[in-house]
Amino acid sequence: MIPKLIVHNSISLDGSTTGFEANLDIHYKLLSSYLPDAIIVGSNTAKTGTQFFCETIPPEEESDFRKPEIQPDDPRAYWLIADSRGILEGLLHVFRRSDYGKDVIVLVSEKTPEGYINYLKERNYDFIRAGADRVNIRHALEIANERYGFELIASDSGGVLNSILLEHGLVEEISLIINPVIVGKNGTNLFRTLEKSDIRLELLKNQIVEKQCVHLVYRVLKE
After folding, report:
1. Complete edge-to-edge strand list for the sheet that includes strand 4-12
2. With 63 labelled, which of 25, 169, 191, 212 sits at a CA distance of 20 to 30 A?
3. Would you give per-residue pLDDT tens digits along the chain (223 residues)?
4. What pTM value is reported for the model?
5. 38-54+75-150: same fold as 3-33+161-223?
6. Where are the domains of the chain?
7. What gap in Å lies between CA 193 and CA 54, rounded to an integer?
């Protein structure tokens, strides 16, 4: 079974994910309100996102090689990071240390470098191998449901991964925080690589948050 998937993102009024400073308190407060079992992120978004957790990447410590102790009542989600090329080698401990997630589970493919697989094993990171070249997201989500019992996953990623999720019909809801800013021509569209057109949506919720932002939630209508 594939878990329910919600795309969650903060964007400008003209649909950009970059070129402005998002309110992370609002972003993560609304994201956590869904109580997702895991938050799926693409490797490029994750690499860029390390700057939000720390100004410079700290060196690894002995504790970074061990799984964190997780309490049964811990409400936080797991990080589910798609990284078939291993670009996060040397960076994953930033996510393991963060207060926003329980621990990291990495999605890899058959072509993922063995050096990166060894890096994951040495540090006791769980990983899901699905797909020949790139990660087969549908298969990976099925495994995540079977292995960990994940029933709800939220995507907190950029345009590439979100487009893939929509292309494959995996998204059930889209949650957008509209920020009061227009980025213009230098913006990065939320679904910039999406080739599928005419995806129909149904508005479920619209709410003003913090007097400035608007939270919109849509259901993705199935064909």
Report:
1. 126-129, 101-108, 77-82, 38-42, 152-155, 4-12, 173-179, 213-220, 201-209
2. 25
3. 899 999 999 999 999 988 998 888 899 899 999 999 999 999 988 998 887 777 789 999 999 999 999 998 999 999 999 999 999 999 999 999 988 889 999 999 999 999 999 999 999 999 999 999 999 999 999 999 999 999 999 999 888 899 999 999 999 999 999 999 999 988 888 888 888 778 999 999 999 998 889 999 999 998 7
4. 0.91
5. yes
6. 3-33+161-223, 38-54+75-150
7. 29
